[in-house]
Fold these 2 entries.
Entry 1:
Amino acid sequence: MLKIIDLTTGYGPVEVLHEVNLDFKDSRIVTVLGANGAGKSTLIKTISGILRPWKGSVLFDGKDISRMSTSQIAKMGIVHVPEGRHIFPNLTVKENLLLGGYFRSDKENKETLDQVLRLFPILKERINQKGGNLSGGEQQMLAIARGLMAKPRLLLLDEPSLGLAPILVSEIFQTVKGLAQQEGVQVLLVEQNARKALDISDTGYVMVLGRIVLSGTSDELKENPEVRKLYLGGQNV
Amino acid sequence: MFNLILRGLATGSIYSLTAVGIVLILSTTNVMNFAQGDTGMFLTYIAFFFILRGIVPSLTLPIVIVAGAVLGYVVYKGLISKAKKSSHLGMMIITLGLTMIFEGIVATFFGNIPLLFPPLIPGDPVHFGSVILDRQDILCLVTALVVFGILSFILYRTKIGIAARSIADDEYASRVLGIPIDRIHSFIWAISFGLAGLAGIMTAPRLSLQPLFMVVVQLKAFTAAVLGGMNSVTGAIWGGLILGVMENLVAYYVPAIKESFSLLLIVAILLFLPNGLFGSREAGRS
């Protein structure tokens, strides 16, 4: 279970996150909403250990992970699926997937590979193609599937809907929902596509300029007039 | 003609061994290693030291590989990884510094006079019908073949090799997955320096042993790497072999441009074929 306390960090001299607090409690899927530059990706990068926190702590199952290396954090079951997919274009789909389970034994990887391919049948058809030859939606599937190869307990998804057609976005969000419900994976979802994100999540946080300004259950947020105006386009939900 | 080609391939396999080392380091660590040739020179002197102590020349093959791997690990851990955070240019200058250190150490202990490095396998040239090949040339070809076989097994069949290729593709993504980048970088430096050693002791018996004997090979290997596209191991292998053959043919038919040929080739490739023969960075659409 993830709990973030008073997290402050940034790049070089620029402070980006200001004392951010976030608590997963029993939620399966938590969404962080925010405009471009709000600090959502920075938050995810700090959790996965790519960025170091300046102050505050990140607790996972009560253990402070904020000083651990990316490898150690990944071994604990926190897997980061980065914004912009970042699949390996010159590696085959299979190689991409196997690297997701870098720390696990070949035998474990083989079993997980079968499970993951059952979730993403399209990848099974393309297993020996190069990652760079997949379409945008397939690449996003591959990025998520690669993350699942580590058998994560917490999946950090950074803008999975970016640059995808609406129908694909729905498909990916349904997959994420299924993962949370059936496989028991907790998901921290960072999104600009507020409506679809809130539809599948239990809890939401709204981030503005590096601060959490609002939080609540997804239903509460959907009803909130400010959220509706700024993130849901002011229409009925 | 056939003889020329075969001997060109033997020379070319030395260029390939060196070029592969350069490309491996460049594509995974992002360092242009100007010391690849001189590392080979340094390791060859170490082999020579053992030969002076009475070791059979062919036994220096495993010695330079192991010594090279250790040296590569030490150089990466001690110098390159320390400079990585501060500057890109710094790492390149470090490799230039290494060439001076290696040349200096060797000149101090062995002097600048050319020394005779014995052939790794002694014996008369072998005749295959009309083709005559030095045993040394056969050794080059066989060694290169074995090394490239092992290398492609590592890069395509083992976890650490696939991870190394992933770093060359997208280092940020590898880091996000928790792949231990530093460990894989040191592994690559160890392999590349092992290759440098091999190239060194393959070259030494053909020329003579002196502090600058690998400088020409470094230049040729660089040409080979450019020919292969700078970021492709397969490209570097083919680049080296093609260069070796072309050079041998040119030396025979147009001896006037023998020395300047590889330099002309670099200019021509960069002008007309900037991605080399195998240098497609992105596969398909991106």
Note: The mean pLDDT of chain A is 92.
Entry 2:
Amino acid sequence: MGHIAFQAKGRAVELDSDYVVVGSGAGGASAAIALARAGAKVTLVEAGPWRDPSDYPHSGYGTLRDMFERWGTSFTRGRAYWPVLQGAAVGGSTVMNSAICVRTPADVFDAWQSSAGIDGRSLAQAVWAAQDELEAELSATPVPVAARGRLNLLAARGADALGYENHFMTRYVRDCQGSGSCLQGCHDDRKQSLNRNFVPELLTRDGDVLSCAPVQRVRIVRGRAHSVVGRFKHPQTRQPGAAFEVRARRGVFVAASVTGSPALLMRSGVRHRMLGAGFRTHPGAPILGCYDEPVDMNRAATQGWSSLAYRESLGLKFETLGMPLDLVAGRLQGSGHELMERLREFRHLAMWAVACRAESVGHVSVDWSGRPVVHYTCGEADMRRMREGMYVLAQTHIAAGARAVLPAIEGFPYKLEPNEIELIRSAPIDPRAYVAILSHLFGGCVMGRDPARSVCDERGRVHGHENLYVVDASALPGNLGVNPQHTIMALARHWAKQAVETGKC
Amino acid sequence: MIWLIKQAMLPLMPGSADLPGLADTKLDAFLRRMRRESDPLFWAGIVAGSVLCAVTPLITLGVPLPAFLLPTRLRMRHAARLLVHRFYPIRQAMLLVRYAAGLCWGADPAVRAFFALPAYPADPGTFRSS
């Protein structure tokens, strides 16, 4: 069969496969290729379309339309309405993220052992071994000198001046050109998003890919995952197409994202009090610096610099984030002539962001139509830490030579001079005052040894269902404090291999 | 409805002698395209924000007139006050309107030329078929 894209209404599409994998992002594509390399017949089912670099958008409008699920209209229900950004394409969020590669810190496994009762040490060894493989396969390399650009070089200068650890990021990018278009999909085809490697490889191994194919539910018969069913949906017109059913002889792997996986299991009739629980995230807030010389933040690797110096003490991660003009224009504070004067400085702006390993916990539910809804409020302690991180980044901007910083906090001055940045430490901690975004998501189908307190076991297998697995970040029982893609891919690979080797399904 | 959204957006990004404003862009075509292509929730949010903008000068300026009947100066002041309104949903609604306005303005070739940025090629909107 190969690749089956949107099919108009008519005859249903029916396939049989050893394994069915729902979702083609970091977890799904990694699990699928591991299964296929082990000799299994695999069908990968993805809700979004399959886009290649020649299909990628260029503008911010096009990015919202073509890369983000539902135009980025998912947002948290809680104290503040914070956007929840997820990719919607073959390759999932790997197509529109910055391909950041960070190995799973040891303390994460310790925390999982403590909170979820899993064998942290064994899992750590397995994950790190898988990460060794992935780094080789996907060309994990530090940002090359020529691609760093002033956006990232200034961050390094500032951090070095203040004396805290920092580094240029390692990413799955082969010979980065620094074109600053990670968010839109890498037009230079250097980013190793999984639509460019694992998914095409799956086709060469007799696998099938269904795209534009949102799975409505997993059909479970007497406790066994039997098939996945749904209806094709046109990515532009949103018109429903033909029905499909993909039957799984051996097992179903769910990797539909932190919001999608619990929702899918709920729609499939999986009853578990922990389903949807344990939602965690790394809320991220920007702080811009304004420099005398042009920064041209889009002429650089989009996210090329990072620091984990405050990860253990405050649970913070710092990153650069080059944003295009059309996505910045409507987000700077102000309006009218005041806004236009501020926009004149665009070339002189450098956007950096603090991501917080928040301790706040939310949950995922479904609405009347079965769509996921994220309930989350970032608590006071997390907001204080995020605020402190913004202060450190403000100091870093000044140390790098910025003449002012833009904290983007509601009710706060638009611009702070170097001698005013201390004010950030007394900024409001109400989440409604911040423009934060959630892009690293965890939980919803958390793993654990105790079936009463977890949805799946430490092999990703849903409790009570011998051949139904969760292989994405929804299985993680805590957030990581580092970018999660490398962890998700490694876990998915490990669990998929285990499933085949143990032959339990 | 396009007209109403324009009335909400235009005061947000006025032009000047050297820097084009939103009125200098192809805003009509942009909004028609957005109406056709956007997620229904996204479009509903833009519409809601624009309606809100139209009917609330009474609370921001004490003027009992729809915003589109106000002189430009007052419309700008009204929009600015909505964006910082103490009632969070009002702020968020106007933020979405401004965000969408920025998508149009920041993609305009003349605006991009001002910032020494190349014009965007057309968004292909294509994807692999079977």
Note: The mean pLDDT of chain B is 95.
